[in-house]
User: What shape does this take?
Amino acid sequence: MRELVPRAIAVLCRRGADFASAEDAVQEALVESLGRWENGEIRDPLGWLVAVAWRRFLDSVRSDSARHSREMTAAADPAASPATPNGDSSAAVDDTLELYRLCGHPSLGASSAVALTLRAVAGLTTAQIAAAYLVPEKTMGQRISRAKAKLRGVRLGESGSIRTVLKVLYLVFNEGFSGDVDLETEAIRLASDLRARRDHPEVSGLLALMLLHNARRPARFDSRGGVVPLDEQDRRLWDRRQTAEAIGILRSALARDELGEYQAQAAIAALHADAPAAAETDWPQIVEWYDELLALGPNPVAALGRVVAVGEAEGPHAGMAALVEIDPGVPRREAVEARLAERAGELPRAARLYAAAAESAATTAERDYLRGRAARAANSK
Assistant: This one.
């Protein structure tokens, strides 16, 4: 039923319901579906969901006299007549792609767009989204309500760009796993769904990038939850089936010769995946892909990644020279400098830099890892 949520919302929006009312009506219909689904009472899930949600919407319109004229207009439109559980021709039209774009509308901030996408497109509850972001349910509910209010009056077809949609999905993916919601898996599901609806090389690039990162997931942490860096991961734990799928998707996208940032990032991830061992990584080619990525536009994080690649391909001193160009405020810059100093044999300096980097770490696991590296460098002779 969750997979049908965006389609049902899109049908109601196309009929004339505003986004907030459509989303509320579909959620109410979902609640009503509980039990009936398992009992086999719902033979046509999408038609049933649309029919019940549309009746809920009309009921809410009728209860508001200020919207009386709008109700009459909707009722007079044959395309907007209430559906029946046994069939609804308008439900056969899939506007889910437009709903993705609506949730990524430029009027919304990043956090609001992510929350609304998870609620309306992924079909998660407010409680699940709140748990995933470690905020109170009331806070998340207010965030979603404000986002829906900003979209009042915005119709399908007046929505954000595909680039914004991809950015939102990548933000979802990068949140990882928390609460009872696996946001990496949700983001991959949504990106795969989007790719089926939108033939665009960057959509394929993002899906490939997500799959490549997710394939390494079993090796990213040790048994105690500690961070395991890429060069120390047990590559036997990587999901090779997922990797192969990602590379196939990426090759198809690159063949169209319309390079974008997600394709370039996926190409870098694919080179890591291709290496049987960390020592066999094709670092010179990774540097070239970073150059391609940076040619597409300024990207401080990618620029720092290029420094790491240069340090591996040409040695730590070359990496240090490239690091001079990176703004001191770029996240993880000190950690990269510490790694280069360690490889250059400057252990006291590396220890200080690792300790400083730990103070600004984004997670407890990352902080513990950096403190461990600082202690290791300080105690080395």
In short: Strands lie at 177-178, 181-182.
